[in-house]
User: Fold these one by one.
Assistant:
Number 1:
Amino acid sequence: MNRQKISIVVVCLSFLVNAVTLADENLQVLSGTIDGVKASNVMNHYLRSQAQERFEKWKAEYEQRTTPEQIAEYQKRLRSKFLEAIGDLPRRTPLKPRITGVVHRDGYKVEKVIFESQPKHYVSAVLFLPDSEEHKPPYPGVLVPCGHSRNAKGYESYQTMGALLALNGMAALVFDPIDQGERIQLLLQLPELWGTRAHTMLGVGSILLGRNTAWFEIWDGMRGIDYLQSRPEVDPTRIGCTGNSGGGTQTSYLMSLDDRIIAAAPSCYITNFYECILELGAQDAEQNIYGQLAFGMDHADYLMMRAPTPIIICAATKDFFDIRGTWESFRYAKRLYSRMGFAERIDLLENDAPHNYNQLQRQSVTRWMARWLLKKDEPITEPTIKLLSEEEIKCTPNGQVMLLKGARSTYDLNRDFEKELAKRRKKRWKTTSRTELFNQVCKLAGIRRLTELPNPKAEELEVIERNGYLVKKMILKPEDGIYLPALMFLPKQTRSEGVVLYVHENGKGADAAPGGPIEKLVKTGRSVLAVDLRGTGETQQTSQRYFMSYFGSDGQDVYTAYLLGRSYVGMRTEDIMMCARFLHLQDGRVDLVAVGHVSVPALHAAALGPDMFGSVKLVRGLVSWSNVIESGRSKNQLVNTVHGALTVYDLPDLAATLGANLTIEEPLNALGEPINKQ
């Protein structure tokens, strides 16, 4: 082939044919840092840079929003995008509430309640009601979603919040979020999986369905308001919402989306994504809404989407949610409220305290609710509250809703939805053209067509000599900020036609040892290019621990990409396609071998670019995304999620398009086990 036709910039930094001996062999390509960035942080730096661009665009768009018409259009558009991103909410079904007990205290009473937010999907809650001559019904109702505490509604702060509201003439419904309190969803499988990790476990499958863990939480909250409004003691026109930490997240979402909430007080959550990503990295599943940085929804928008609804932000100076971001979001919201003529309806309490729902915050929240729901504005002092015991606050006979007859978990609800989608997919793949189907695949995964992709730049580095072949170190650069370390294995003698592109979940060196799978290919005369796809091998993230136990060491980077509306599957698919074209231009036919979880992007690349590949072999890859839903539990599958993929296609649908060219060896289930394991 005429190499003059190759439109690839090759910079030969060094070409050392007489390289090191095998005993001194080092297959590392990148130095400790590249362009000032630690190799393992390349993806984090790249994604942060993209996020920074979105922040700057957000600020510019905010400044253009000045008239009532522009603000109203913004609110309508953003709420629509928010709902689209979390998935269509369910239809309302009978709550079927029942009161399982009542506890009386001085000045208030507590009713223990169970209701169904969806059929047989039970919510455990306690309703604090005024019980004194001083306060007469109908009372305003305040929804109190709990933060990430194991005992949820039984936690001191949340009980006390409910009691203080009731003592001041308001009804308060304090409910257990999923995977906390009496609502552990994988009770019989992993009772220790609760809170943020459980929410992220649920999030893996939910992403594939085009949902979010927030979908469940938001709907539970909305049905909680339905329950409050159903009570004759509650005035349905005076509804407030307050919660702390994870409850602050839920409050932020609910006050944005539910017009029935006329006063709100999110505590220890509001900051902004710039500070959050910079300091903490992306958080658990429900705190990351798909593409929200791309379509322009930051924390300040939760405050502004329902302006001029009265909102007080409770914040702590020593919180891990950075107070600088809180103030920035507040200032943007305050300016918008001022533009609307309602500056007094938004405020901020800055408390010199760590992350909690302490007495000062509870008093301030109660005063805020009284101001807007009772039209009373006076200092409120919290008395000593006699807490309910663990037994007293328990709503269910055995302490868990999943032990109730016929109970349906969040995973069951996802399975039900997947069964519906499977029927739709089957019909779609029979009746829709291949071109249209692949267009939809590309749109969902964020994959550009090959003609839209740039040619990667390449740097050739040193060459290592082995017995019968050479190993050339290379760096491929598919785009600014991305570096793909690579090893080109070249037989010294006559070469077979074509080349093998080899990608492995553990990087280019995983199968590169003498006597290993790559050498066996080279000994047959094949040239082999082994590449670290972005975020693997030398650029594998190693410093993130938040999600590592179940979701890999790069979960926070994956979620930052998710906030940007991107998927690792899509980005790695493009890496493979560009590497294949790089080889195709030089050597013609390219065979593809993928080992481990990178089989998912490899399958996408092969299906979308069949003319570039000869044979395709996938080893120890995920059998299907539907298996993730069926299993419920999964291990290290977050990196291979595509938002809403199962609304259009599953991995076997792509595999079927390759026919005899595809070989699948040792497929694994969602837990990384052989699928035939008993």
Note: The mean pLDDT is 92.
Number 2:
Amino acid sequence: MIAKNFVALCLTLMLCGSLHASDARAGDASETRSETLSLLIGEVRVGSLQAKTRGNEVTIDYEYRNNGRGPTLKEHITLDESGLPSAWTIQGHTTFGSKVDESFAVQGSKARWSDSTGTGESDAARKLYAAQSSSPWALGLYARALLADGESSMAAYPAGNIALQSGEEITLTGSGDSLTARVYSLGGLDLNPSHILLDGDRQLAAFITPRFVAVRAGYEAESTRLRALAAELSTRRLESLAQQTAFRFEQPVRISPVRIFDPHTLRLSEPRAVVVHRNTISSVQPVDTPASPDEIAIDGGGGTLIAGMFEMHGHLSQEQAALNIAAGVTSVRDMGNANEVLDGLIRRIEQGQVVGPRVVRSGFIEGKSPFNSNNGILVDSQQAALEAVRWYAARGFWQVKLYNSMDPAWAEAVVAEAHALGLRVAGHVPAFGTANGMLDAGFDEMTHINQVMLGWVLEPGEDTRTLLRFTAMKRFPTIDLDGPAVRATFDRFTRRGVAMEPTLAIHERGLLQRDGAEPVGGAGWVEHMPIGTQRDMRQSWFEIATPEDDAGYRAAYAKIVDTLRAMHRSGILLVPGTDLGGSFAYHRELELFQTLGMSAAEVLRRATLDMAVHLGRDQSLGSIEAHKLADFFLVDGDPTADLSALKRIRLVAADGVFYRPSDIHAQFGITPFVEGVALPGASR
């Protein structure tokens, strides 16, 4: 992969990049060049990268902490005479604690490497090693090597190519000085390019994303501007994608023949024709009904038409927005974001500038602490928390989400204020609180099943703002699901009608994935991904130091499944959401819901009409009926018999705009799953 960890990217918004400023070629062996880069989320400094170059040897120390976690890595790199790595070792731990022990070396006529996926070798050639778990320094190395070579791309070990694109020039100001830097984008091995700035000497000035910035020490004040630049670069790419993939029709569109999934009966209809005018389903007609003049005809091929699905746990980015549309997810509940970033994304989606779903906003409220997540609104008192609720209510948010570092003693007042202003309340169990306490305070929904189950195994005073909220899951096998503690919690859920959003797919991946093993939950789709994503999916999340760790985490997942089955039997509404970006992970979440006692048809109803009802949007969404909004997708096969059919989506309508997932996937380096339908007479 290109110098980032996929887990950190999806779950913590701790994006990595390239953070080194040494020359691509070996320097004077008598000189040591040192550089420090500050790592910031928003305006908050969360860590640093220190790189030292002496001759052709580079050592790197890289660490950050956000939300109680982050990577710690030490690297040593040897560069050959042309500036390419001839040896590279990486040791430390990933964001969630998995051990890193990676190496690469060119020895004679062979290049050999070892990472979390296993070992490999290849004939030595002029290639760049694409490190799996490196610090963000790697992208700077790749860019300088490509610039020195005069090429726009170069082959990589273990596979693929790294490509470089040059952009605009800007001037940065800081510490009484200024520097001119050029923007470069690096891509080829992952779903999205990474953006860096190099100065006139081709030294790194910054690595930038809309949320995370790594910038040369002394230039931290430029972080706001650099995040805005990253958002603009992403927007340009996604605007181009929208122009190439979005089909709009002024005339009525007739899709026929199709069989419609009816969430009321859990059955497929007889062949029908569905007619759409602009963003509304005009009518559902017998398949032999004559078309009116000037209609656009789309051959449905006898496939199945399903209402757009709801991903109920997103932290939406522009790239994820497009991939969710390609997955038939036309509505996403965002569970916490940088408010200004999300507002801009929603505006661009609504104006048709970028491809994306309908967004339901959750206002993120987090307490200030050494472990806090830098997201939403941070508060340091109950009064500040109440003011945050009022801020979100005045801006039309659907609910507020309370997080780990908020004082649990404030929950009752915060919930009361939210309910008085028409907002729902969901969230984690704040540290030193319990699920029972949050249910008593009036939560409408609990987020993440481990947050509930920890209350049955933790000792008083244990701090879940750290990785303990993951490692303590090894205690789950001791839980007695028929015991009084569990029954007391279940009774609170059922008596008050509280929903549970378990994020089961993220627990499956975190607890069951092992280094080098086939990707857990990835069957049928991982092989379509770029090589960097495939390597990420084969990496363990947590440290598995002993056989007892392995057995403990596996048993923990089994107990989670048993708990959710019991919740389902008790009538507790289980809400499908991933916290993994949605898209393919959302399809997996739905497959896992079948293991909880639901049929495939019941899972489809849960993903569509049930969630429309839950969000109060069932008058316009959730089923394919006349006068509802045109949010739906077309698949080959019968997903009521086999949910794997969801991977074979041929057409998506989102607010009456039509997309072929094969078109969108090609823009992300994803091998299409099925050919899209023919769309005649379309304007873009």
Note: The chain is about 25% helix and 30% strand.
Number 3:
Amino acid sequence: MSYVIVFARRFLTLFKQGDVSCVTKYLNKTIVKKQFIQFVAFFLLSIQLSAQKAPNIIVVLADDVGTGDISKYRSLHTDAIKIETPNIDKLATEGMFFTNAHAPAALCATSRYAIMTGNHNYRSPLPWGVWSGYAESVFTPETMTLGRLMKKADYQTAFIGKWHLGTDFGRHSNPTKPYRTRNKNKIDLDLNIEKIIGGGPMQNGFDYSFTLPSGIQNVPYAVYENDQWFPLRKDSQIGIINKLYMESLGIELDKNQGLGDSKWNPKQIGPLLVNKAVDYISKKAKEDKPFFIYYCSQAVHTPHTPADELNGIKIAGTTPSKHMDMIKELDVQMGMLVQELKKQGVYENTVFIFTSDNGGLHIDGDTWNARHEPSDIYRGCKNDPYEGGSRVPFIVSWPSKIKGNAKTNKPVLGLDISATIAAIAGVKLEENEATDSYNLLPILEQKKKAKTHPFVMLQGGSAKQTMIIENGWKLIIQFDKKDKSDATRTPVALFNLNENVWEHEEFNLINNKRYQRKVNYLLKKYNDTRDGKKPTGYHF
């Protein structure tokens, strides 16, 4: 084949120089038809590769999905699979999946801040914050978000799905003054929720936005496209969504009553989001610039309201529980995204990252009776400091670059997405940007001695606990709930995950005198890193 390469290189040189006569003479030297066919194939491939644009990138953040919710992960520990996720499994089979991946925190909003910025949440102005749809954004115009990062790389950027990072809505009495409340029972009828005036995706680096400020579970119960209210029906109005209204739909009100679309129905949101993403891919795949989509699915957060049907596939009532129906819906959503990428001919050159904002849900009812385990073999669930609270699926597919059937147990975090896609897009992060994000590209390329976090720092949930893990040793630290300075920190558990990955309490070594040095060492390392504001990421 070497002679074909030499031949092709010579031809390409003449072709680029525009010397038609020399090109013709050179072609006449081709004696054997087989050689010519090989050459033409090589020439066309060379043209294709030289014209290929930077890869499109899609980051999918599922909501409350644990490793046990994904059959590829669950099958590592049991044959008793209760819910299959064939589309997500295929992404893992065609790419690389990480078996030691964690969300930055065991709770939604704090984790989303870290993923959006590449910074641990303790660097935020609200280190323990859970931001409502009316809360003030913690982002400034200088904050490097995923949107701003990809704009810097000259990508078209889109945010689709649950935001949950604070949003500004004006008042009728003063449209420029943002509305703020943390009173769960207060309804401000002067609130104007027909337009986002600040704090949302479009103010933080995204060209296109189709978003729910608080997801499907909380106020405002409405959808916004490019900051404008998107009525769910032609006769939609702004009204009150309360317990009585939700019960009329056969749905339990998950959080607070408040303002929203008068035709609000969370069963419609999944199909709405995924079809907007499909439409975006269809449109942008034809354009010269690559696109970046941050897709934050509504699945599988409560209230569990699966679509009746999606992409011609029946969803509601097809599994043992509504919770598991939502897992199926999520998988179908992923299948639709991949299907459209393939239809547009860009799948091979698209980086697809799938993960979750925290560990799986605490289960009861039909899910419990079906013996489905969202946390797989791990202790705890969402909001817990145990492995089940933060262990998540983490899958990366890039067919033209990543070898399939790849698996690694190297520790990774959701906030590593920033440095990784920066490296893929060829954009440099400054030292003060995404300070805790690790570039995973060398691992994806399976380079020898590829590095990742030497130790992992995590945040728990509403109980104000943090965790540090090094070489399999995990220390859980309790912060004083009354101490707003976060100065009071007490070690409460020490587990050797190498031998006790289940974190059985009888093997909690915190009071074992033999391990006091380990406790002191990990506590000091955590404190020195956090208080010294030391970066824990690696961009190169």
Note: Residues 322-343 form the longest helix (22 residues).
Number 4:
Amino acid sequence: MQWKLPSVRAFPHCGWICAWAALASGGLQAAPTDAFRYEHLFRIDQVVEAQISPDGSRVAVVTERPKPETYYSRQRTIWLVPRAGGKPERVPAADAGSSLDNPVWSPDSRKILYRVARDKVNELVVRDLGSNQSRVLQPCGTKETVGVAIWSPDASRIAAICNGANPLTASVEEKKEEKGGLESKAIVATRSRLYDDSLAKRWSPERRAVVMDLTGKKRVEAFNSQYLLDEPGALQWREAETLWIVGTPANPFGGMAFVSGRTLHRYDVRQRRLDTLAGTVDTERMPLLTGPDAGFIVPVAGTVASPDPSQFRKTWELEPLQLFEFSNGKQGQDPLASLEIYVGRSAPFLWSRAGGDGAGNGTLYFQWFDRGSNRIKAFHADRTGQERWQDLTPAGKNVIAFSLSADGRTMALVTGDANTPNDVYLLDLKQPSTSPSRLTRFGDAVRDLFQVSDVETVRWRSKDDRFDIDGWLLKPADYQPGKRYPLILLVHGGPGVAFRNSFDAMHFEGAHQVPPELYLARGYMVLMANPRGDPGYGRQHQEAILEGWEFPTNYDLIPGVQEMVRRGYADPERLGIAGASYGGWVTAFAVTQTDMFKAASAHDPVIDTGISSAVAYRGNLLGNYWLHAGFVDNHLLDAPFPTSDPRKVNTPILLRFGLKEQPPMPSMFFVSGLEYFTYLHAHCKPVEMIMHPEEGHGIGDGETLRDYVDRDLAWFDYWLLGKGGLPYKPHTCHP
């Protein structure tokens, strides 16, 4: 299937309305001459969601941009776009600080429900698209936040999940209020919170499922439990008087999504009666309601991770996706179908009965991960053999969200790739081999802000000749063929995750909170790769991480940099490496294996997993998932892991650590990092360490992040480009 995204065009930066006006008139402006700056991060709206109306006439599109003051917070906007095309209509917000998201169409397509967040206030709004009148609904209490919300089939009511306070955060606040005295001056380890069994406290908040009418006057609590889930599919409502509520079995973590098993609760809206099905659904995903009589399809496996520490090894063991039937409290013994692919735990599944010849027949659509790209696959329940499975999107195109019209004919896709910002496309499911039609052009405005760099997909063979390693080579906007450039290898966290073939991941996210475009604007090349252990490349590739952490570094990543030198892209005398978390460990480890890198930057690295394991130990719970990842045969603390030996380091390295305690463990990263820094500093090695007392495993405060980005750039500029002043304070030492 030949499936191409239309090329991107530029518009003057005067807002989305101006961009659409330029598109309609055919007017084009000259390409921008400005290089990317840090401030551009907060001027870029990225498309993250598209909900097509049941009648297929309109699409509700959500765009977002980071907030300068709090990096992990997002300002979101909802737009209504006619299927026939034309200017998007922005859904009005009460004030400039409001963030709108989670649009849900009423079954008759006449109203839209969405969530509004502003100044810690979280509420729902119903907007009548005929009268353009809005009504604010408050299904939750003043100290609760609104989660998942859905319509009743007759559009007369809504159901919503209300979340209470986070118990882990609350426990930290309690510590701040502790009084003095002897107990505050001495810690008896086995009696202290420091080494408390974390399983003694639940992780998730108390949750309630609430049903209310559109006037807001009739509000009924359907269920109250710490084991309720708050994610898409937690509420399912197909019959007027029957609401299905999904939770987890009783467990120490509460209603956390990673807990194994799902319980199904049937709430009779008319009689206000709750019944719980006796059988537990054997899955970590949402069962999909397919018909009456408690008929569900259950997605199981596809890859597995478990809250049981002894089963964390399965994070890297690829198990086939299996689909089971679940009816009247019983799960079928044999799967309906099985396919060996990687499907993330949070990947969306949508069921459509349109076109099915019976209550249990229809099509299941879901997202799977293939060589760095999310793709959409269909499972046709009423077909047999290979005809049951159908790929709707091709390799190399990344789909981050999708939705279906009620008649099952049209799919709205949010898609793009490393060179194409996300936009909304419509796919005719009756003729899926045809290219989708582009509905929106939000992504076009990106190229008017700055000179966007190009990304080339590259591939090389691993050093042990076992795997093809996929990578993305980011080139400066003014790239000149044949010229060698300084190159920085960015290493993602994890392990067990992967870089996505998407514009935002490649240009803005990177690996350690420094946008790759900032490197490119200064004349660097950037290489990002998915080594062994990453999902989406088959069983052997994924499970190879269990052979040891050192192999991805030595066999996949370092050879990738060497290959870029061999191909004439990279200057061998100006190579750098950077990463965060597991990527920070790779960075700190790589400079003990080779002196090819002339500068390194490690963001919250796990320098020595043995020391970090001891700090993370909590009674019966080992809070760090790598401890039970299968790398050791006996007790977790008996065998050494690959560590970053500072005695072998000759590369100038910048270290960054957050000191803030993160429940249920304090910062185990800093402890071994301090040892690493102290050795290098005492032996006159070029090293600097940045500590952020109010930040954890990542930087949220905007001012702090800007400072870190500037220091990281200055570090590489000095050591690789010979620019700027000495980025660390030299001292008198005696090596």
Note: The longest strand covers residues 570-580.
